[in-house]
Amino acid sequence: MPTRMSSFAHVIDSFRHGGLSPNEFIAHIDRVLAANQSNSARLLEILTEEHTKIPLPPDVYAEAHRRIEHSAESVPGTTDDETRAVNSSVAGSDRIKGVGDTLNGRFVLEECLGVGGMGTVYKALDLRKLEASDRKPYIAIKVLNLQFRGHPKSLIALQREAKKAQTLAHPNIVTVYDFDRDGSMVYLTMEYMSGKPLSEILRTTGFSGMPYAEALPIISGMGRALAYAHERGLVHCDFKPGNVFLTDSGHVKVIDFGIARAFEKPGEESDATIFDAGSLGGMTPAYASPEMLDHREPDPRDDIYALACITYELLTGRHPFGRLSATQARSAGSKAPRPKNLGLRQWHALRAALSFDRETRTPTVARFLAEISGERQQRVSVGLVASGVVVGVILAAGLSYYWQSRTAGGEKLPPPVAPSAIAVAPSATPVTPPATLPPTAQPSEPALSLAAVAPILAGVSCSALAASVNDHALKVQGFLSERSGIARLKDTLSKVPGVKALSTDIQLVGDDKCGVLKQLAPYWTTNRQAGAAASIRTRDAELNLTEDDPLILDITTPGYNSYVSVDYYLVDGNVVHLLPNPDAKDNQAPPSHALTIGSLGEWVIAKPLGTELVVLLITPAPLFDGIRPQSETASDYLGAVEQRLRQLAAKYGSEKIAVDLIQITTKARKH
After folding, report:
1. What is the pLDDT of residue 355?
2. What distance in Å separates the CA atoms of residue 617 and residue 640, rounded to the nearest whole number?
């Protein structure tokens, strides 16, 4: 057994190549420490250097790291300056902690999950959650590594990571809770996920790539996370397989925005921060763009280069440039061969994203995802004709947002009340003053109430209407059949006792929409009159879209865990399911969540053109057990929806079902 410090690197190399088992490797470290304990700081430095070159298994590295730190802490009366520096960071009660220890008397570290550029991640039991009988008492804790812990700005680094990560509330980005310290140990708390990092899959013996169809959902999940961060002015700056986590439930989560840095978006003033976490270092050369290696200002295209490298590895099992850094590969004139399982058009997209020149590299993640998925060539066109006007939307395949939430629950309440069959008719004549009143007395004005208006609105056939009252002013909004017309409704409402001012915000719809309104109007009205917690909007406030425009929808969900369905109703009697659908099955949403779908170009307006309804349907449990076909007749779908909504209302309460509607008009692009 070698005892000199210079030979420790050879021990590590022997372990890497199978010459030592993990237990034998740890035993070697113990013998080295016993023989030369006073030089443990140098031993730790070698371990860190070797791990930086070629990462060791996370659990082995964490255990080796911990034993050497404990050894450094226990050295009595040493005169070695380096060892003294280590001891000073863990003096007194600030003992280095690892598996089996507790942070701040609350978090019990139970398992090492991995080691990143800035810290070690543990699975931890939250004793406070356990005491509260929380069904999910586990969290993940990221503890800064020793070299960062000793950095004077390490606490700032973790605080910045926590702050940035907390602003990135996206289903493909790990949820970060808070940051804190226990003595010298600085740590970050985040959601615990069961699964494995993508790096573990790529490094599996014999892995030679995934089929394109299997890789695409992972590529899409990674891309959505990066696109979301880029929209908020952040570049990851260390995107690599080790920072992509695949959960057991099939979700993709991007982690470790530790050195994410802001970039200046066009038209915005730069908001320079006092501290840049990137100054602590921590990029991975095999995935860093040439511009990052040249220390240029961060740009979203840096992450696109890394995403392209990972995409290539997913498809082939090999790094596109043999794990050379981008600058080395460029100098060597390296060119990645086309993956055998990738179509020509998709290969052109991947090759553009692998460009060594930022100016010729794919400009946005959305563009990369659209091209690598072949959306522009694989659209499903759905058309219709109504009154001589053509309406349609192109549904692009393969992309959607995945939303994580727990199964929603609720108390049993009565089922929704069906619309009243009361006919629209003038109300009673206003009360006249009794003859016995003194000549100076004035008749009392009847109060205006929703109770007087609601039966009238509910009795209007083919409509979804909601009212609000302010003193003697009545406002009505919603949707009404063209055949009924607004004039007749206004005339009826103006005669309601107490109405002095009447305003309307009503859209007329074709008779072909009556089936949708009849089925969903009660839930739309309840949602509207409760403040419209569930809503769907397009980016165009005028609801006018032009051919080739993307259909981008902003959605908000109510204050409970829910399942989200988005459907596009066509005048030919069919309905297209935008979410969920066979290519986008996960439609869970957390409480009070705001999100955007379609920003990656999933849906594009195309001929035929005209006017249509887009419907948001929120339910407390999955609307159906399985995924329905992407397109079906509206009558079949609405029949199934009616039966299922009755079941959900009986179990959870009708107030847990919410609907919002938008009617859009599309027109041809002028050439």
Report:
1. 96
2. 14
Q: Which residues are annotated as catalytic? A: 238
- Domain spans of the chain? 5-89, 102-191, 197-266+283-377, 450-512, 517-667
- In the numeric block, the tokens 């739309």 are attached to 524
Q: Would you say the pTM of this structure is higher than 0.85?
A: no
Strand locations in 359-509, DSSP E?
A: 379-386, 389-396, 463-470, 473-481, 501-509
Pick one of 3.40.1000.20, 3.40.50.720, 3.30.200.20, 1.20.120.530 as the CATH number of 102-191: 3.30.200.20
Q: Which two tokens stand for residue 165?
A: 């990560």
Length of the chain: 671
Angle at CA of residue 515, ends 509 and 520, nearest 5°: 90
- For the chain, count helices (H), then strands (E): 19, 27
Ranges of the chain whose pLDDT falls below 70: 1-7, 34-39, 58-59, 70-96, 115-119, 145-167, 258-283, 375-445, 599-602, 606-608, 671
Q: How far apart are CA 160 and CA 276, in angstroms?
A: 8
Alpha-carbon gap, residue 418 to 425, rounded angstroms: 20
CB 421 within 8 Å of CB 617? no
Q: Which of 206, 213, 208, 227 is nearest to 307 (CA)?
A: 227
pLDDT given at position 82? 38
**Fold held by 197-266+283-377:** Transferase(Phosphotransferase); domain 1 (1.10.510)
The pLDDT assigned to 231 comes to 86
pLDDT at site 73: 57
Cα 239 off chain centre by = 17
Residue 579 · residue 566 · CB < 8 Å: yes
The secondary structure of the chain in percent helix, strand, coil, rounded to multiples of 5, reads 35, 25, 40
What's at 346, amino acid-wise?
Answer: Q
Neighbouring-strand partners of residue 553: 538, 597
